[in-house]
Amino acid sequence: xxxxxxxxxxxxxxxxxxxxxxxxxxxxxxxxxxxxxxxxxxxxxxxxxxxxxxxxxxxxxxxxxxxxxxxxxxxxxxxxxxxxxxxxxxxxxxxxxxxxxxxxxxxxxxxxxxxxxxxxxxxxxxxxxxxxxxxxxxxxxxxxxxxxxxxxxxxxxxxxxxxxxxxxxxxxxxxxxxxxxxxxxxxxxxxxxxxxxxxxxxxxxxxxxxxxxxxxxxxxxxxxxxxxxxxxxxxxxxxxxxxxxxxxxxxxxxxxxxxxxxxxxxxxxxxxxxxxxxxxxxxxxxxxxxxxxxxxxxxxxxxxxxxxxxxxxxxxxxxxxxxxxxxxxxxxxxxxxxxxxxxxxxxxxxxxxxxxxxxxxxxxxxxxxxxxxxxxxxxxxxxxxxxxxxxxxxxxxxxxxxxxxxxxxxxxxxxxxxxxxxxxxxxx
Length: 428
Known about the structure:
Elements: H1 3-13, E1 30-34, E2 37-40, E3 45-48, H2 51-54, H3 63-73, H4 87-99, E4 104-110, H5 113-130, E5 138-142, H6 151-155, E6 175-177, H7 190-203, E7 207-212, E8 216-217, E9 223-224, H8 227-240, E10 243-247, E11 271-274, E12 286-291, H9 292-300, H10 316-331, H11 334-349, E13 358-364, E14 367-372, H12 378-387, E15 390-391, E16 398-401, H13 409-424
């Protein structure tokens, strides 16, 4: 199939994420991927700055990942998880319990990050129902958050500026407080937490849980907030008897410089969601971890089971990919690699700070963000990045990088230089 034929069929039949059918936005056919490079069907190669939406932390076509999946494929690709179990799932659950905060002992697998959020929210509601407090069925969160595209997850995304404001009239109404004004590395004052505490105090009888992305708000704006704020949130949840759900889907597995972002504040959630980089970008898999208290309370209440069960939960291939990815990560000097990437992102993106079209530049771990004053024109800017030989996918006002952890300095330098050059030519 030629590139033109493929694109014609794509335009006629394939609906891409957050796009219109038949859209004029450019789409680039990928023939293969290896290391940090995407090879297009026309022969061009692009340095990947996105890690395929933050998941491919080891790059592409990794020999150890490939070998592990090939071996598992000879045994079984899938088996239902109702009434059956298998070694990859048990090993993975055991390792996740060992890597995450000590109190998290029960693991529920699902097949996407959004579903892991749905699972977490259902756990919280079912927990309080089992404890005889069925009125505790709503959620409190901070604005500018993003937790996924399914209905429960959408209800705790930003209600005004988020991608899902269209659905507000049909979503369960939740409680929102302003985004923390205290940035990462700054102290959290009483004033910074006052709105959150007042809402939590007044609505505690109706709240099943607080749900937040720890330290880094992802697709809602890539903001980095104070670790002190998260610490205060944990204290207030304990004080007012409300569960804390932390969404580590984007931040988990080293992206911020910590294995999990909650480590910056040294807090333990009651429920944690993980996904994206869990399998190194090879397969779709997510998990929701919780405490023994929550899992036992649900199991001993009515109806005596947790009411959720995805068809492809704990898929053996996906679990095998996760085990291989975790081994590669933990066997590597990932902390020093993230530190190296962070330092180069700081230096490489620094020239953007002087540009009139730029509102802010911020870096944490292997995350580099250039926030513009006005939204980017994707149809214009995307081809410029491709012509420069890099794959950078801006959204809204953000031009950002989340490269694979294996990226080398020369390639990372080309990514940052491309951003500086292209942003410099955006008219204010």
